[in-house]
Amino acid sequence: MDWALFGIFLLGCVAAGSTGAIFAPDDWYRKQLLKPSWTPPDWLFPLAWTTLYILIALAATRVARLPGAEYAIGLWAVQMTLNALWSPIFFGVRRIRAALVAVGALWLAVFATMIALFRLDWLAGLMFVPYIAWVSVAFSLNFWIWRNNDDTYAQPAE
Known about the structure:
By secondary structure, the chain is mainly alpha-helical. The protein is built from 7 helices and no strands. The chain has helices at residues 3-22, 27-32, 44-63, 70-92, 96-120, 122-127, 129-148. 30% of the residues are buried.
């Protein structure tokens, strides 16, 4: 394995994930929003994202040097960009509906990336299965929150 290349992809994941640290859940999310009973506990998010980011970087590393990997790596970059957008939209400007659109676009990009990865390397594609599952939960959670909370009262964090 090319550890330098893995480091580059992992750095991309850390950069995208940093928005989740900068725009973290606060009292608005914890105390003001209605959330479903199946909302994952707070402690699970850093554990899940750390695992996912390692898998996401490994998947990209496995295919980056393969012939025909241009579309897979391009889609990888798109999904990482969309990944970085959700937290600032949801927690930063507190726009639940806009965040739902962002996580929907992320789901589509992750799915497309997963398919592109499977076409190149079955293990790389398999590494995206937990990611699509997690983004599916995130979409469902965002949808439930949007349907059960008033998006109009949300004010940006101060």
